[in-house]
Write a structure and sequence with these properties.
The structure holds two protein chains of two kinds. Chain A is mostly helical. Chain A folds into two domains: 4-571, Cytochrome C Oxidase, Chain A; 662-811, Cytochrome c oxidase, subunit III, four-helix bundle (Four Helix Bundle (Hemerythrin (Met), subunit A)). Chain A contains 23 helices and two strands. Chain A has helices spanning 31-35, 40-69, 79-114, 122-144, 169-197, 210-242, 256-289, 296-309, 325-353, 362-384, 387-393, 397-427, 433-459, 476-506, 544-550, 578-595, 597-616, 635-661, 671-674, 677-703, 706-736, 745-776, 785-811; strands spanning 4-5, 571-572. The two termini of chain A are 49 Å apart. By secondary structure, chain B is mostly helical. Chain B has two domains: 1-78, no CATH class; 79-112. Chain B has a two-stranded antiparallel sheet with strand order 1-2. In chain B, helix 1 (23-43) packs antiparallel against helix 2 (53-72). Chain B starts with 6 loop residues before the first strand and ends in a 9-residue tail after the last helix. The relative contact order of chain B is 0.09. At the A-B interface, helix 7, helix 9, helix 18, helix 20 and helix 23 of A face helix 1, helix 2 and helix 3 of B.
Chain lengths: 813, 112
């Protein structure tokens, strides 16, 4: 992590800042300071402002949808506009509102709750934010050019292929989702490393607050669930831009493939949206019940189980697609099983409140509201687990009611509970309780008025995604009241915003611990100083701050612990403008994909140049030399292993597609007619030997043997280039023999799989050459061995992926 | 070129674990990888092995995969947390890949 000393603090001393309302926004608060900020608290605020703006846009889209449906045969908008609005509403709320609103809490609070001074990679954190912002703007720019996406947030192929969606609408959608996915995976890796490696001494895993645990599970879901949908989006992009056949039925493609890949991501995504809310409620209810969380360990295990089972239930979204009885039975049972850990959470929240000294504050209202409303959504979810029942409800308003009870009654109520709970910590000001409660009841009543009747509408047959309906079926009455309810929700959100603005200006000072909190964030000032804590806080157990204040169940206070060792003193990350430059490069490249190749190349150039500058910005900063955490592993090495886990999903999906489509090409050439085994065996040998040279290079750098480090680093890069040469020869030969991306399914899957691997090799070669240049310039010493080791891990992973590809693609008959 | 492996103490467990293998070990592993690659290339031309060719190739490939991960990527010598962080997603990704192959395309075994 990049560091600068706190102003005025001598090295090794504790810098103290007065707990003023502006302390968290370290002065000077210029525009430049916000653009270059790497402070987790400021980035959290940026996420909050941006995501709330997108939430309002998504809300306006919802209101327009409800206006159109308020009465039969309404003419507020055309069918095409309606399609665009429900597509953008779903995409916006999932990717640009709920997910980043949860990121506010991840960013602002996770470091505070684990007793850390920032996240593991502050600049990467800033990069995640800027990519998210530009991805969101890019998606919404589709409105400005009059071509908003219009095929649903799930983008089912082949509705989305060029044949059926010839305009740029889907291009905006698939490109922005890929951009947003990159942001999410970066943030996911960052937070996993932060939580695992940056906990204060004494903060064992089982002592971590529930919110931190649910954040950890959520980040694992993000880094593992996003690669499959990324691959699906890449297939769609290749089908649309380059004429491949992934979703071309006439060429042998299977449309179920899109649905599987989308929902392998899509169902964990539900837990990505809801688990943070579960974590928030698990913090709010104990505070306002003045009781510890009932069964905290079981709550942790339940969250882990929900995350794990979240990967085994995706096909319950596809019961109507016709998967066959065995698959239906498996996914039905798995879906019912996942209700068990979810039910455990509900009962434990009830048990937490039971017998507690309840304080009905605004956050408590929202948290208790989640318990009730999410239960309703969960119960209708169990109904959908049964394929025969689901077949009756599929594509009806019953499903719309179900997932809004989960995602508004669950996720949004949790976010509002968190927003009102931690608002005093973030701003140093209290919200108005009376206005807050009024807002809660209006949102609560409006929400139920909007969505409860939709269960009934679905049950009497009203389908989803219809832009109008006849008066005959009698759907008008409840649709009208559903629209009234939607406007009530909007008014409630308006009251929340007014309350927030009034609080910023007139709110009473909050003090450090306005709710008599239980966790470490309440131990520092509101807002916290730039360095979060003057001293790394001592950890006395679960609910450490509560124990420190009131002792254990019998009131026995723990013996005060000495301040945790802080050998490096108080340091803060240095601001950097490279994150926004890299993100801008990505934005320009995405925009270029819709307009011109030249723009793509300009964007790519900015991206690559920015990435190099980003990587080398702190190459010799002393604070970067060692970044060991509580696991005894350097942050960067830990991050690389987590990233490689994510890459397993990426290549797993690519390889699975190749094998699933093997033999389905309706025209030749086929693999056995064209693959050149002797040549590929040679290139495999070359890549394996490059791995040997890589470990020799690492050993040489660790020894400080400059000659050998240069020799072996250069050798590894050379062997990588030779492998790429083999690949170029193979591709050229195939093209001459009539096999291209567009020829058949084999060509599409083969070139994309091996091409992506080649892309990884290319990136690895660039990385190695960069290290070599640093070495030649005398800037790669023993202290930089970790950097070589991390590059080596990536290189070896590329090697093991090829071992799998060599067998599965080339050798298997 | 022969460097002895260094040892490192885990900060919490105090367990002594070598940081990486010796150069000699790397060379042996590279030799095995080369031999197995040659073997993989060879066995596909042996007709008698046809009935067991697929499992044989998968086992050989998995062995090579494991050797690189354990020795070149140092998992054998590193924190077990890292092993978990890599192996758990690897297993899950493999299961999902098998599921996708089973539910679509030529690997369809359940019937629609």
């Amino acid at each position: 992590m990049a560091h600068r000393d706190v102003a005025g603090a001598a090295p090794g001393t504790i810098a103290t800042r007065p707990p003023t309302a502006r302390a968290g926004l370290a002065a000077p608060a210029t525009i430049k300071s916000w653009i270059t900020t790497v402070d987790h608290k400021r980035i959290g605020i940026l996420y909050g402002v941006t995501a709330f703006a997108f939430f309002l846009i998504g809300g306006i889209e919802a209101l327009l949808i409800r206006l159109q449906l308020a009465r039969p045969l309404n003419t507020v908008m055309s069918a095409e506009t309606f399609n665009s609005l429900f597509t953008m509403h779903g995409t916006t709320m999932v990717f640009l509102a709920i997910m980043p609103l949860n990121s506010v809490f991840f960013n602002y609070l996770v470091p505070l709750m684990i007793g850390a001074r920032d996240v593991a990679f502050p600049r990467l954190n800033a990069l995640s934010y800027w990519i998210f912002l530009f991805g969101g703007l890019f998606l919404n720019a589709s409105f400005l050019v009059g071509t908003p996406p219009n095929a649903g947030w799930f983008g089912y192929a082949n509705l989305t292929t060029r044949q059926f969606s010839p305009g740029p609408e889907i291009d905006f959608w698939m490109l922005s989702l890929q951009v947003l996915g990159a942001s999410s995976i970066m943030a996911g890796v960052n937070f996993i490393v932060t939580i695992l490696n940056m906990r204060a001494p004494g903060m064992t895993l089982m002592r971590m607050p529930l919110f931190v645990w649910m954040t950890l599970v959520t980040q694992f879901l993000i880094v593992l669930a996003f690669p499959p949908v990324t691959v699906a989006l890449i297939y769609l992009m290749f089908d649309r831009f380059f004429g491949t056949h992934f979703f071309d039925v006439a060429a042998g493609g299977d449309l179920h493939l899109w649905q599987h890949l989308f929902w392998i991501f899509g169902h964990p995504e539900v837990y990505i949206l809801i688990l943070p809310a579960f974590g928030i409620v698990s913090e709010v209810l104990p505070t306002f019940s003045r009781k510890p969380l009932f069964g905290a360990q079981i709550m942790i295990y339940s969250g882990i189980l929900i995350g794990f089972f979240g990967f085994s239930v995706w096909s319950h979204h596809m019961f109507a697609a016709g998967m066959g009885p065995v698959a239906d039975a498996f996914f039905s049972i798995a879906t019912m099983i996942i209700a068990i850990p979810t039910g455990v959470k509900i009962f434990n929240w009830l048990a937490t409140m039971w017998g507690g000294t309840l304080r009905p504050t605004v956050p408590f209202h929202f948290a208790a509201g989640l318990v009730g409303l999410f239960t309703i959504g969960g119960l209708s979810g169990v109904m959908h687990a049964s394929p025969p029942v689901d077949l009756q409800q599929t594509d009806s308003y019953f499903v719309v009611a179900h997932f809004h009870y989960v995602l508004i009654g669950g996720s949004l109520f949790g976010i509002l509970a968190g927003a009102t709970y931690w608002w005093p910590k973030i701003t140093g000001r209290l919200l108005d309780e009376r206005l807050g409660r009024l807002g809660f009841w209006i949102i609560f009543a409006g929400f139920n008025l909007t969505f409860f009747p939709q269960h009934y509408l679905g049950a009497i047959g009203m389908p989803r995604r219809i832009y109008t309906y006849n008066p005959g079926p009698g759907w008008g009455f409840w649709n009208f009241w559903s629209t009234v309810g939607a406007f009530a929700i909007a008014f409630g959100v308006f009251l929340f915003a007014v309350n927030a603005l009034l609080s910023l200006r007139y709110g009473a000072p909050a003090g450090a611990d306005p709710w008599d909190g239980r966790t470490l964030e309440w131990r520092t000032s509101s807002p916290p100083p730039p360095h979060d804590f003057d001293e790394i806080p001592p950890v006395y157990g679960r609910d450490s701050f509560w124990r420190e204040k009131y002792g254990d169940d019998r009131g026995r206070k723990p013996a005060p612990l000495p301040a945790a060792p802080d050998p490096h003193g108080v340091h803060l990350p240095s601001p950097s403008h490279w994150p926004i430059v890299v993100a801008l490069g990505l934005l320009v490249a995405a925009a270029g994909a819709l307009t011109s190749l030249a723009l793509v190349l300009i964007g790519a150039a900015v991206l690559v140049a920015g990435a190099f500058a980003f990587a080398l910005e702190h190459h010799r900063t002393p604070a970067h030399v060692r970044q060991d955490g509580v696991l005894g592993v350097d942050h960067r090495k830990l991050a690389m292993w987590i990233f490689l886990g994510s890459e397993c999903f990426l290549f797993g999906t690519l390889i699975a597609t190749y094998l699933a489509y093997k033999g389905r090409s309706v025209v030749g050439p086929h693999p056995h007619e064209i693959l050149n085994l002797p040549i590929t065996t040679l290139s495999t040998f070359d890549l394996l030997m490059s791995s040997l040279l890589m470990v020799l290079a690492l050993a040489a750098v660790q020894r400080g043997d400059r000659f050998q480090s240069r020799l072996w680093l250069g050798g590894t890069a050379l062997f990588g280039l030779i492998f790429l040469g083999f690949q170029a020869y193979e591709f050229t030969t195939f093209v001459h023999e009539g096999l291209t991306l567009q020829t058949n399914l084999f060509g599409s899957t083969f070139f994309v799989l091996t091409g992506f691997h080649g892309g990884h090799v290319t990136l690895g070669v660039l990385w190695l050459l960069t290290l070599l240049v640093l070495d030649l310039r005398g800037r790669l010493g023993v202290q930089d061995a970790l950097k070589v080791e991390v590059a080596g891990l990536y290189w070896h992973f590329v090697d093991v992926v090829w071992i799998a590809i060599f067998t599965l693609v080339y050798l298997l008959p | 070129m022969s460097t002895p492996s260094t040892a490192r103490e885990h900060p919490t467990t105090g367990e002594q674990r070598p940081e990486h293998a010796s150069i000699r070990t790397y060379l042996i592993v590279a030799g095995i990888l080369s031999a197995v690659t040659a073997l993989e290339f060879g066995v596909i031309y042996v007709r008698r092995l046809a009935p067991v060719l697929i499992p044989l190739l998968l086992v050989l490939s998995a062995g090579k995969f494991a050797l690189v991960v354990m020795f070149f990527m140092h998992l054998r010598y590193d924190s077990r947390v890292l092993t978990f962080l890599f192996v758990a997603p690897l297993v899950l990704a493999t299961l999902l890949a098998i599921a996708v192959m089973t539910l679509t395309g030529e690997f369809l075994v359940f019937g629609r």
